[in-house]
Amino acid sequence: MASLFDKYGGFAKVSRIVSAFYDKVLDSEVLAPYFANVDMRRLIDHQTKFIAQVMGGPASFSNQELKRVHQNLHVTDEAFAEMGMAMRETLEDFDLDDEDVEFIANEIVARKPYIVT
């Protein structure tokens, strides 16, 4: 059985999804301030790898890495929820199957304790 990563076209598609996701994020009054001084190309590269991992692709980020990267950002529950909504909307925009959107969203929510401070 193919992974979601393979099912949806690998890194090329995941990269487009992540770029579109950050377009939504940067339009958000809640989320945009978190990215004011961030190298977005670098972040999109890392996030592409993270979403690829969530989808069963060949990348790996540990929960400890997620915690280390987010620990000084003071991510709130509100910001995490808005990020989740932006990701869901983006996945739906790219016509991922509903059950696959749910799977990916649940995988991200499972990592909430390492992201929200």
Could you characterize the architecture of this molecule?
This protein is mainly α and 117 residues long. The protein has one domain (4-115): Globin-like (Orthogonal Bundle). It has seven helices and no strands. Helix 2 crosses helix 3 (40-54) and helix 2 (10-26) crosses helix 5 (77-93). The longest helix has 17 residues, at 10-26.
Beta-strand portion reads under 5%
CATH top level class name: Mainly Alpha
- Please count the beta strands (DSSP E, at least 2 residues each): 0
How many helices? The count is 7
The class by helix and strand makeup works out as: mainly alpha
What tags apply to this protein structure?
single chain; 117 residues; mainly alpha; Globin-like; 0% strand; globular
Topology (SSEs and partners):
Elements: H1 4-7, H2 10-26, H3 40-54, H4 63-70, H5 77-93, H6 98-109, H7 112-115
